[in-house]
Amino acid sequence: MSDFPNCPKCNSEYTYEDGSLFICPECAHEWTLELQPDNSSEDKKIIKDASGNTLNNGDSVTVIKDLKVKGSSSVIKIGTKVKNIRLVDGDHDIDCQIDGFGAMKLKSEFVKKV
């Protein structure tokens, strides 16, 4: 095995050296050993619900308006409770499982923390 450190972002063991940088082929993160960030100082995006409450992984939320499901005639009704959310990057920043619909991605502006 190599003597290179694991990726500080995704903990991949397949890192390699390119000049003075270490590069992770799995998440494309680049860093130097001198400037290796610690996990507490990483700039994480704070995701808030419609009321301004900060959302975290594992929270339960309620849908605050009827949402049409793209590619279907179904609608997620107002007041639908969603348990155990996961926060992800992107426009739809909540990844969840909704009973009766399956896996969904929601925008945080359409939910309220329970």
CATH architecture of the largest domain: Roll
What is the tally of beta strands? Answer: 11
Ends apart, CA distance between termini: 47 Å
The tally of structural domains comes to 2
> Class of the largest domain in CATH?
Mainly Beta
Residues in helices, as a percent range = under 10%
- By secondary-structure content and strand pairing, the structural class works out as mainly beta
Rg result: 19 Å
The total of helices stands at: 0
SSE succession: EEEEEEEEEEE
The oligomeric state is single chain
> Which stretches are poorly predicted, pLDDT < 50 over at least 5 residues?
none
Shape: elongated
Strand content: 25-35%
CATH fold field value of the largest domain: SH3 type barrels
Q: How is the largest sheet built, in terms of strand order?
A: 1-2-3
Specify the CATH homologous superfamily of the largest domain: SH3 Domains
Mean pLDDT: 87
Largest sheet: number of strands, sense, barrel closure: 3 strands, antiparallel
